[in-house]
Specification:
disordered N terminus, dipeptidyl-peptidase activity, signal, carboxylic ester hydrolase activity, about 30% strand, CocE/Ser_esterase, Rossmann fold, Acyl esterase, 14 helices, ten-stranded mixed sheet
Length: about 550
Amino acid sequence: MTNPNRPRTWWPALVLLLCFSPLLHAAGSSALYPVASLVAGILNQPLFPESAVYTTNDDIVIRGSDGINLEANVFIPTSGESSYPAIVFINSWALNEYEYLAAAGRLAEQGYIVLSYSSRGWGNSGGLVDTAGPKDMDDFSRVLDWLLANTATDPERIGAAGISYGAGISLLAAAHDDRVRAVAAMSGWGSLVEALYAGQTPRLVWGELLTLSGELLGRPDPAISALWSNVRNHRNVEQTIAWASIRSPLNYVDQLNANGTAVYQANNWGDNLFQPNSPLELHHRLNGPKHIDLQAGTHAGTEIIGMLGDGNTRIWNNVQRWFDSHLKGVPSAIDDQLPVQMKVQFTDRYEGFTAFPVPEARPRRWYLHPRSLFTPGSLRESPWQSWQARSIGISSWADTLAGTGIPLASQVFTQLKVPVTAPIPLLGQNRSIWFQTGRLDETLAIRGIPRVTLQITPADRHAQLVAYLYDMDWAGTGKLITHAPVTLPEATAGETVAVTVDLVATAYDVPAGNRLVLVVDTRDILYEYPEGGTTRVDFEFSNGQLSTLEVPAL
């Protein structure tokens, strides 16, 4: 359990200080400033930008809903207007009020009051981490109260923004407080339930990373580690789902719509913490002004790269354009973009669409045909027909060469157009099964969420499957397109069930001459495997038990 009164862990900050001290001293107003500012902020040694067009104040303490102190800073333009639009930044997980200093300076130069605060349990703010819960919502409203009472903020022109944790709080706060007119949510979530437990599969790597960083750099509520332990062990899951549900913006769509909140989202195809499916569902269900940018990269990767530079990136430019449009009423370039913008993987090309699901995309359906002794399974447009049913089993005793790559790192490499690959013919038939199309006659432009339905029979009381979609070239090398896991923690041994898996949304072009390949195995390093040891899963093929792959394609 975490002691809320323990001294803040000092050694991570000391390591950063020793490594980056020369950088901090050399930064000044140079091109190194954004990097130095972020590092210094983590150390609670802020480097504020300086400008004649705004002032800064780092001595702000706001009283939270239950009497705790919330540490904050504010940038105020000096142009002498009677009122200004305002933006509130909320910190990412494990960071603090100094995360956005460079971005705040740029926005203040454009005439915005910008306040950043450390949410409870982070930085020098009091209390325990509430993980975007009710206390965080009350705190946010107290921050707005302070902003309106102490600055020339126009109450009709307030926005909220953040990355990751800050994105989720921004969306939820806008649903709870109708004073928020516009939101910019970068690498946020729609459903926290899905982020933790989609497909009844615990997100092992990210869950452990978040709980560890919370212990090192924050003061987490002890309930957080207990709830995560429940998820990992498939125990009292209903309790965790209830906890996560009240922290899921998808459950507050009606409030966002009633408030008329203008919602900008940016998410990354390779974000295996907040995978893009639930943000896309949120976008779909919103009926007010909305926009979503989707591109390659890991969680918060593209946003942080923008922060470390001069801010001249698509996402950060669109954040300012969104606020210009909806807080200032100034036409901007984002008004000319279609509301769904997808960057096609391993290209420099964005494609715009009017909605999601993409109206122009039509479902392409393939039926899974079983492998033979000498040929792999196939994907065909007609169902498998045979007078005799077939059953093909795979073992879960070990992982295969199919996978999502190196956690975090491989998804960063996709931003550099380096794909995750697998040698499809060498995967091994005892631990995996795969199905492939013939060589494609034309490019297959996937835009959306592929879906797999499998007829399986678990041999034990638990089972896990991981489905991977690959683009395979003539040599048998597969480039990973997308994937998703599914777990049956309480299966009935020997009972055949139909399992449907929605893969992670993507935009990907499979070139003519290549093959589309569906691989299924039982393990991936990203995900927790259920207790109970090695087991076997049989894939069933018969006239009445059809397994399918559906892909939305232009």
